[in-house]
Amino acid sequence: MLDEYKLPKYFWAEAINTACYVTNTVYLRTILKKTPYEIFFGKKPKISHLHVFGCKCFILNNDKDPLGKFDSKSDDGIFLGYSIFGKSFRVFNKRKLIVEESVHVIFDENSIDLIRNDLNDDHIENIKKINLEEKEGDSLPKEWRYNRNHPKESIIGDPSQGVKTRRNLSDEVEHSAFLSEIEPKNIDEALQNNFWIIAKEEELNQFIRNDIWELVTRPHDQNIIGTKWVYKNKLDDSGSIIRNKARLVAQGYTQIEGINFEESFAPVARLEAIRLLLAFACFKVFKLFQMDVKSAFLNGYIDQYVFVEQPTGFESINFPNHVYKLKKVLYGLKEAPRAWYDRLSTFLIEYSFRKGKVDTTLFIKNIGDDLIIIQIYVDDILFGSTNERLSHEFSSLMSKEF
């Protein structure tokens, strides 16, 4: 609540009290079909007095303070909650810098007052008295000096430099880390940046480790599929760049069904199935884990003959006209999702997992009195067991295979 409305941390107690008050008033118990308030007091609560926590409000003076003719009749405030002693509201008075209770409050819920910029944790603690007494020598100067002959460069800069564009700005970026902050728009920009060249080399090295393809003579009776580089900066939760990701994808729109591929559909777990798994885990009281398989589609085997062009900028020096024959699928191929599902499904069945008859993304294995259950959502895997040791063993097994 504090983060949503950018309120200082010293309002945390007010936020907790308000959350408890609202929960007891509006939260409906599933079994009894009643709110906690109704269960305790035997009557339904009134909710017309509820307001948005952290919203801007105006606290009417109501003759508490002597006002002059031109003084404001109200103080700006922030709504913090409800009084436990009556029908008054708890508000933070910005003028007095105190939390007070008042019935005479007008709310402005359409404009949440984001006070983080002008009110922080240090304001209340670091209020200092200001001495306004005039000291000798503080009077304004009697004469002002000015200069009519300012050089133009100090006002408008050097006109000969022109306007900076995205292209020439990228050459001046100082990289504080070994990452590029600018995503290239085409292959030419990427080849001029060492960071993106390294990212592409990492992608191709992964192809070598996974034995994705082999270089062969260009066949004249086959459809050769083009390739394309896709560039993306990976961000963390705070929005900072943590990785330059370059992915080589096949231009699958040129594939012909029945010639280049047979099946492209891969089953995906329904949200209802995931909810049932969560409910079952709660019922059996065991922990669920989530796993994301890195470059999952590159693990799927391919049945048809599929040939792709060599990646631009990384052509073979000795065989520049050769093409790659795929052993496994690439991202962008229409059969990639299906190939990955078939590979994972076959792997799990080899280790005695049973595939669901209705939900084919569900895999179950019984080991004595224990149970391990797996739900697949493309390259995301949700799994858990009544014996947590089995979950860790499954995680290690997947890490070794993929």
Automatic annotation (TrEMBL):
Residues 55-111 form the Retroviral polymerase SH3-like domain. InterPro entries: DNA/RNA_pol_sf (IPR043502), Retrotran_Ty1/copia-like (IPR039537), RNaseH-like_sf (IPR012337), RVT_2 (IPR013103), SH3_retrovirus (IPR057670). Residues 210-402 form the Reverse transcriptase Ty1/copia-type domain. Keywords: Hydrolase, Metal-binding. GO terms for molecular function: hydrolase activity; metal ion binding. It comes from the Eukaryota. PANTHER family: RNA-DIRECTED DNA POLYMERASE, TRANSPOSASE, PUTATIVE-RELATED. This is Retrovirus-related Pol polyprotein from transposon TNT 1-94. It comes from Dendrobium catenatum. The lineage of its organism: Eukaryota, Viridiplantae, Streptophyta, Embryophyta, Tracheophyta.
